[in-house]
Predict the 3D structure of the following.
Amino acid sequence: MNYKHLTAAISACERALNEQIENPQNWQLACRDLGNILQGLGRFDEAIQWHSFALESQLNLVEIYFYLGKLHANEENWLEAIASLKNVLEYQPNSVTVYSSLAQIYGRLGQKEAEMDCWYRALNLRPDLSDARGYHKLAKALQEDGKIEAAITCYQRAIERSQNFFAPYYELAEIWFQQGQLEQASSCYQTILAQDPNQARAYHKLGSIYLQQNQYEEAIAALRQAIQIDPQFPWAYRELVKTFIKLERWDEAIATCHAIINLVEEFPWVYVYLGNALRQKGRIADAASAFQKACVLRGWHQCLTKNYHFTQDYFTYRIPVWTSHLQSFAAQPDLKILEIGSFQGMSTCWLLDNVLTHSSAELTCVADNFRELFAANLAKTGVKEKVIQLAGNVPQLLASLSPETYDVINFQSKCKLSDRIRQDVALAWQTLKAGGLALFNDYGWTNPVAPEQNPKLGIDQFLNSVKGQWEIVRHAPQAYQLIIKKGVRSQKPGVRIN
């Protein structure tokens, strides 16, 4: 007696099940044989069940299919087990036991989406089947799969089962926040604080909501409370600094930046905010030192060793993205990069120090005009001969460039008008090689008081006109960055940017 005989007996039962209306004797014989084999294997409980089926004149198909499913599962015949259990659902669509069994099988198969769906169905039928942590785990999985409404339901059930378990409150509040339902998000954080007033994270999140609602004094109070509870909570400091800068309370912004540096850590963003506030106070040299420090903390050490002087920083937040996607171009012979808009030369100098390092590499900068500070910083690179400066009417200059010349184009024009952006992108696109990268900066940035300043709108309008001629390499919303590759046709040429 062995497992091969068991497999054969199970198959015989399934065949007999299909024929049982015409040949009930065959079914009874198949059940008895299966019971005998199970008994011989020492699986007595299962054997009794199948012997009892052999004695029944009227078959209970729900029960039969369920036990066939269990047999297949015990033998790890997963697909057969799924088929049998799904047959049960044909007759009994609200079976919690079947959905639970299917969920476990899908889990063994690594089919996460199907597993979560079955658990969700089982819990809808029997909400008491899981505790708060079980619902929270399921909600997280559903959220990761993009099933937001189902995730919300599970987070709410987790909260109902344990009001002192704060994780689902935080997750649910974040969903509300992302959906713009700020009052509901605020209610979650306030509920947490009513139960535990020492939750620094809840005060920080509450402060962020107040900022969204332009309730600045309430935001400041909440963020200060978060810092009082946890003096080393950097994100509460960050929101506080942003608030002070928005309110033009420069001294408080500077003091808060120094507090972060002394008490928490030297984050790059701290020095950027510090530099912005110092500049507004007229402390230009100190601001330049702060921006220089931000560059060093982002890994750009040449900024210090070559003593570049920048009084504004619209670039360092992009360095991690650029490092990741431009590293392959570093030291490449005959590399050609086009930059539209150069300002004080921060991105220009970074490209020369980190990417355009081969002696034959070349950078073309196009701008309405070049500032004295750009020239001074360019001189400090030691390789200013690699740079071609074209000043004047930008559209006319772009139209004069040779087609398919550049490996990379960096769009960072100081003009943010969507119509002008679309025009510049269309002209520059012709100069980009197939396989080349286009770096769009300010992608997603808007001016609330001048809606016509919307780079994303102009960029999207152009890209949608050349569908199928590019693919997204990276979209980094927090860095207002979109990177695409030209000349790669996907199987979905209708990809659309919204």
